Amino acid sequence: MQEFDISNRQIQLTIVLKLNQLQRQSYPNLTYDNLVDVLVDWKWKRSVPSSLHEAVNDILSLSADTVIQFMSKQAIIDGYRTSLSDYNDLLVKGGSHE
Asked: DSSP assignment of 53-71, as one string?
């Protein structure tokens, strides 16, 4: 499947504008990469926009709920794919009192 050109400057600007809106509204910790992941791995995974205005509309129509739901599902999937031993450095440091 073809991938949409996320490096287009107008697309990048639109993502930044949407990011600023979501950060102001209620999610100050969202990042540019979070929105790119939602677009590439969910919104445009099966249906790539055929024009610039379609891509811009997709970006501007993203809701905070959609972004958070996607990120939550990704965290669950990522957690399933890793083992507890991947977190040994955190567990050892967290349990020791130096």
From this structure: HHHHHHHHT--HHHHHHHH
